[in-house]
Amino acid sequence: RLKKARLHVEKAIKEKKIFAVQGPYPVIRRLLRARGWVERKLPRNGRQLKQHPGDQKKQELKKRASGGGDEQGEAVLNPRGGAQPSLGTTEPLHHPWPRDKESKGQREDEDKKEDKEQCHEDSDDIHDLMSFLAQDQVPNFLWTIRLSNIDQELLPKIEMVNRFPRLYALCTKEGLCQSLQNLSWFEQVDLNTFFPRCYRLGLMDEQKAFIEDFRLTAARSLLKLALQKVEDRPVGTEQSPKVPGILSQPMPSTAGPHSPLYPQLVQEALEVCEQHLGVLGHQDIDRNTPSPCRTCIAWDRFLQEYYRVAHEGTRLVLSTEQQEQCQDVLQRLEEQLPQLGMEGNLNVWILKPSAKSRGRGIVCATRLEEVLELARSCTDPAARVCEWVVQKYVERPLTIFDTKFDIRQWFLVTDWKPLTAWFYRDCYLRFCSQPFSLCHLEPARHLCNVSIQKRYKASQPDPRVPPDKIWSNKQFQAHLARLGRADAWQRVVVPGMKAAILNALRCTRDQVSSRKGSFELFGADFLIGEDFQPWLLEINSCPTMSPSSAVTRRLCANVQRDTLRLVLDRKDNPTCSIGAFELLYREVGWGLGTAPPQAPRAPTAPCVSLQAAVSSCLNVGLKLMVTGCSLKKP
């Protein structure tokens, strides 16, 4: 067995097939071992690996192979030998809430299962022995959870790494918000067609812009509510007890629901919306037109009256003329504002901590003062990043069996310069535990994160909602077919997700450190509107591969398999299968003086399929080179 291990390691070193994995990725380990790779195992939290009874024979073999020395638990990645900082823990950091005892037991069970899934012809002992023999080798391939855990002197020597440095502009909520605000410099695409309005509350200019947006949205919402009152449809939110935790409930106002409203309320809302239409039509360029939010309207009073109508059910009285005016103004606003339909009429906004994941710290608010109260904690100019971002909540999402869901969509970037991205055709849906309702804002109804929903017991009145709260995209397509919209997935949802991902990548590529040999698998979260339009919520680096259901167990294993096919097998065999990956974008002519022009986009972008590989014009931020020759004076 020692001889076999030595021969295997020597062959792997010669063929540059030494790998290291930080984290519980049994699929990656199994697939690389099947390809003849040898793992250079990493210590857990810098401690020695656990010894099990009966390992004495294995330790004797190791001593014979090395002439004595330290145990494997103390070995680290150091080509020169000696002590080096560990590459990091192999604890499953990407598991939700890892400190939970139940999760810890589940991780131990998964580790045991991983051991059973090793190659049949080799025992786990021989893998440990080969890892010990390769302890002084720099890995040729590294799959890690955090790039910051890697020794920066060692990192450049590793040929392939599954992470890119400096992903703040793409994978934090604040960074993505800032990056997409610059979209107009790169593409002639309206940001508001795929990304809900978002503001960084730590910046005073953006906080003022949010206040103006909140007021304008309240005015539009009041017109919608006024028309709904006329049609005798139920409107508003119920006042439920405040639930401690993540989401806030609407706060009651001091005035009672039967107190008379300010008589000019609807007229003021109409005037504000008319002024806003003038600004949208650029009528404020040649004349001194005040901002709609800087008029003589008393906004504090207006908002308090709006809260009574929206959240307490106070009735409005409309004349026939006002009803016609409301319909006309809203129709004209719809032509100018892509988000008018999805924003609803209750003016709900969602606040998110800038750099947290798994739904931690998310708060929903329906009142301006609630948002500003949180903003006061993140206006320190010396702070490196803003603490909160606020984003318009999609009040009219597509629901399945009256339950909210979102989509986790994978994509892979294999190069930033030139930008090369791959789209994964399979994805999965994550359901909430309770039916969707804007009358109640608790997390069980509004946050689809698995780590949030696992805290709640499913109380679904509809037994068709999956008990594990996960669906595959195939199941979703079958559901759309039953609704008579089988074409919506391929004609609207998929092209919309592709366009949103590509726009985000184009905005951020100059802010990401490109490293040849690196690649990264990302997870984008989308919410689907009632019109099947996908809305990009955020982009996650190092998306979880922990199987929370039978669907994710299969899909997560498949995407890891296909990722290795794309980044490893395709180097030696360009025609090999890459599974469910398809080329989303490959930049042509990067860094050159000229580039073929990009084909013009159709006006109905969400319903037009993107080509697998499209050429790109040189954009702002890229290196521009001018060529020519000097002319002699006549």
From TrEMBL:
PROSITE patterns: TTL. Residues 43-121 are annotated as: Disordered. Its main location: cytoplasm. One of its GO terms (molecular function) is ATP binding. Residues 52-63, 92-121 have a biased composition (Basic and acidic residues). InterPro entries: TTL/TTLL_fam (IPR004344), TTLL_monoglycylase (IPR051437). Keywords: ATP-binding, Cell projection, Cilium, Cytoplasm, Cytoskeleton, Flagellum, Ligase, Nucleotide-binding. The keyword Zinc does not apply. GO terms for biological process: cilium assembly; cilium movement. GO terms for cellular component: axoneme; microtubule cytoskeleton. It catalyses: L-glutamyl-[protein] + glycine + ATP = glycyl-L-glutamyl-[protein] + ADP + phosphate + H(+). It is found in: Cytoplasm, Cytoskeleton, Flagellum axoneme. This is TTLL3 monoglycylase. It comes from Poecile atricapillus. The lineage of its organism: Eukaryota, Metazoa, Chordata, Craniata, Vertebrata.
